[in-house]
Amino acid sequence: MNFKATIATFLSEEFAPDIPPEEFDENLNLVDFGIIDSLGVLKLVAYLESDFGIVVQPEELSVDLFSSLGEISRFVDRKLEAVR
């Protein structure tokens, strides 16, 4: 499964309609560039839990874990690996 492409599409549709999913830089800091804020992180977490079937623990609700497409993709990958 291509997590990055799926997540990039969500980020583009919900937070950055000016950035096409295929042009989303995985290292772009979403917080520093004002693309996502703390409320957006919660919306992103709800999406990840719903679409990927993962559970994000309260102690994992850190902006750092969700600061870029690359960080988000690695987080989802780790969560899915843990349940395999």
Q: Quick one: how many beta strands?
A: 0
Query: What is the level 1 CATH name?
Result: Mainly Alpha
CATH superfamily: ACP-like
**What global shape is seen?**
globular
| Percentage of residues assigned to helices | 40-55%
Q: What is the CA–CA distance across the termini?
A: 14 Å
The sequence of SSEs as H and E is: HHH
Mean pLDDT: 93
Described by strand count, sense and barrel closure, the largest sheet is: none
User: If you consult CATH, what is the topology?
Assistant: Non-ribosomal Peptide Synthetase Peptidyl Carrier Protein, Chain A
* Unreliably modeled segments: none
Rounded to the nearest angstrom, the radius of gyration is 12 Å
Q: In DSSP terms, counting alpha (H) and pi (I) runs of 4 or more, how many helices? A: 3
Number of domains: 1
CATH-level-2 architecture = Orthogonal Bundle
- Approximate strand percentage: under 5%
Describe what this molecule looks like in 3D:
By secondary structure, the chain is mainly α. It has one domain (1-83): ACP-like (Non-ribosomal Peptide Synthetase Peptidyl Carrier Protein, Chain A, Orthogonal Bundle), CATH 1.10.1200.10. It contains 3 helices and no strands. It has helices at residues 3-14, 38-52, 69-83. The mean pLDDT is 93.
Quick summary:
This protein has 84 residues and is mainly alpha-helical. The protein has helices spanning 3-14, 38-52, 69-83.
Question: What are the key terms here?
Answer:
84 residues, mainly alpha, Non-ribosomal Peptide Synthetase Peptidyl Carrier Protein, Chain A, 3 helices, 0% strand
